[in-house]
Amino acid sequence: MHNPVTIPTSLPLVPLHNKKVLLPGVVSKIVLRNRDSIFLLRRLHKIFDPKNFPIVGCIPIIRKTAPSTLQGSENDRVITNGPSSTGDDDNSTQAEPTTAPQVPVLHPQRPRRADKTKKSDDQLDAAPGEPPTSSEDLFTFGCAARIMRIERVGFGGFTIFVEGLSRFRVDRIIQETPYLIASVTHYPEPLEVSTAKAAEIHDQVLRFRALAREFLVKMKELQLPDALTAQLQRLVEQAPPSTLANLLVTVIDASFDERLSMLESTELGARLEKAGEWITRQLHISQQVHSTIEDKLSKKQREFYLRQQLNAIKEELGEKDSDDNLNSSGNTEEDEITDLGRRLADANLPEEAAAASQRELKRLKRLHPSTAEWSVVRTYLETVAELPWSKSSEDVLDIRRAREQLEADHYGCVWVRRFLDIVKKRILEYLSVVKSIATALSRRFHRISLGGVRDEADIRGHRRTYVGALPGLVIHGLKKCGVNNPVFLLDEIDKTASSSHYGDPTAALLEVLDPEQNNTFTDHYLNLPFDLSHVVFIATANTLDTIPPALLDRMEVIPLPGYTFEEKLHIARSHLVPKQVLEHGLKKGDVVMADDVVLRIAEGYTRESGVRGLERAIAAVVRAKCVEVAELREQGREDKYRPEVKVKDLEDILGIEKFDDEIAQRESIPGIVTGLAYTSSGSGGILFIEASQMPGKGNLQLTGKLGDVIKESAQIAMSWVKTHAYTLRLTASANSNVLENVDIHVHVPSGSVPKDGPSAGITIVTALVSLLSGRRVPPTTAMTGEITLRGNVLPVGGIKEKVIAAHRAGIHRIIVPFRNKKDVMGDVPAAVRDQIEFVFVKTVGDVLTEAFEVNKGSRRPEKVVVVESRL
């Protein structure tokens, strides 16, 4: 304790919010944000001297005259009258009436607040936070305290560390702005009991210190630090009884009203009596809680001890393995263990898994149910028991039924049969050769979404050493299906994240998909081999570029190209239109779309490889018809409703067409040639190669967000043109440079879309020759093919997708490498082949001849032309 401090009779007041009460001898941290306290602390912060701590009066707030608009919930107080300050001691020389009037010392005729038009320096710098505290909200008694430290916090707030010195009673308020100042009467804390009263309260002090020692013993059970325990011990033995009572009331769970009562009690005997009563109550509550917990733990410990004795006796009698005898106690945990053992036996585990599970089961029996390890082991054994180690669904080998099912799902029209012939054929071969899997429709189905999976543990599971460990997606799926031969759909396998500090999930998939390894797949959680060889894995991907080669090698790739307009027409007529009509609450026949309407939607609004956009457009048309039905029904003119959708209605419903016949409307210009591309989404598309020349030094500039491969194709094309410039009649002599004093710029529009690949080789060389010779290539003629430095034309991929995209765009003539003829004749639907003329070429000279000669005469009557090399 510090030396006695002289406390003035007038104190600046610091209102205490949040039902906070400061008692003498207690050090406390207070955060202040109300306006009047901020004004006071700003001044004290400027003149703060660590050697001469300022003294303020900390006074609780018992009610509010008006709710605060800023922090109302924090400042609401119960309106109470100040209780008696004397306790039961009749010898008190400063006794108050038994029922004290509500703040009687605050004289009602207090001065008015300063005129707002005449602001002091502090008022000019108004503080944020709560409004000023009214004197009517203050408690009758407070605690004089020295400010030991001041800190700024947040926006305009302060934190102060104060030490309570003595109680005081508010006599009157002598200042209200910019902060409160009150005239007070002090009640100093006695450092020792006076001789006159020593005999009266000596026994009371001894009883209180004994009670404090008992309370300290309970606090030691919390395993507090040794230094803190020693400090508390010194306080209990050496601190004055008044200070000890104040400290303990602050520590225990006392209510706000009880602490106010302690603050206004000026007699030591009354304070000791109140504090002793509240500490006794606290000890009683703590003992009840401790006894309840101890009773529960003791019961569990006795059960565990008796169970261990029972096991030892049964081992002596040779009855150790009897599950019925183990369960004779009727314990719930024993029932769970017995049931778990029976489930493990019924699971027909492999030898290795059975041995491991029995070892874990015996370990579970030795563990106490209250331990965390008991729950971990039980969860693990339940997972093992629920897995379909030997449970399979029955396969029915019926090739005819499988064929009929595929035809029914994908329709048997000529276009769709050709479109899905390869896929259907492969599935039928799979069913025919591998009898153990039969038809997928008789098996359980589970989908695993791999998009965004970046943790190897998502595939292999977490090891049981981690908190909250779980099996991986594969084992979890098997557990959910309940059989060991389901069909797993690995959706979006191309979007699985690559290697990171979480591991490589694609590497984990190697063991899952490798038929030579997946019969002993080991999940980290199970730590047991599980046979995945009976599972049928079907993976989907939009592109193969992002799939690691090692993983791709474990799979058989079956490409699914885009739909033709005829196929989209049938799909819309058979599936999409009826589906949308039903989903929008209409009946069959309420919306009728003719074939020309569906084709106009597909050609003008949704040029895509699939039918998602087509379905959305059809849904928009159906919704428009729903609105029309509702409006006519409100008007009572339902008989006027017209279910047919006309082509002329589409513009009102879907807006202006997004795609027009761009190819037919393009003008034939030297240096512009139409090419074909294969997109990363697995569909085809058209692109335009544009070339222009300008004065320069023979440089080649390439733009359009081109990749390295297509840039190399442009360099090869330029070299070939320079080599054969005289033959092409682009120069007057064989030794002349066709690019002398000329720069060439090649651009591919749609500059924000990345483009790469070798298939634009013949298109670029044709564009260069067209530019330098002034000859034109019809915009309805497209081409694709890779070139070599010697002028040979090499085959490219994605022929079917490119041809279908060209058909959608209105291309009439396509120049294709000769070695791609088999792809055109075998993969492209006949309906598309009948509407396009194909020219198969072997050299760049053949390409140029066919690209330019078509301008001289009419279109060839034959649909397939094989050109012999001419250059």
TrEMBL record:
> Which residue ranges have biased composition labelled Basic and acidic residues?
112-122
The Swiss-Prot or TrEMBL record describes its family as follows: Belongs to the peptidase S16 family.
Domain Lon N-terminal span(s) in chain numbering: 11-283
Hydrolase as a keyword? yes
Return the Polar residues bias intervals: 81-101
UniProt EC number: 3.4.21.-
Q: Which UniProt keywords apply?
A: ATP-binding, Hydrolase, Nucleotide-binding, Peroxisome, Protease, Serine protease
Per the UniProt entry, what are the Gene Ontology biological process annotations, in alphabetical order?
A: protein catabolic process; proteolysis
* InterPro entries xref list: ATPase_AAA_core (IPR003959), Lon_bac/euk-typ (IPR004815), Lon_lid (IPR054594), Lon_proteolytic (IPR008269), Lon_Prtase (IPR027065), Lon_prtase_N (IPR003111), Lon_prtase_N_sf (IPR046336), P-loop_NTPase (IPR027417)
Enumerate the residue ranges of region (Disordered): 70-135, 316-336
- PROSITE patterns documented for this protein: LON_N, LON_PROTEOLYTIC, LON_SER
Q: Does the keyword Plastid apply?
A: no
The GO terms this record gives for MF are:
ATP binding; ATP hydrolysis activity; ATP-dependent peptidase activity; serine-type endopeptidase activity
- Domain Lon proteolytic residues, every copy: 667-854
Q: What is this protein's record name?
A: Lon protease homolog
| Positions annotated as active site in the UniProt record | S759, K802
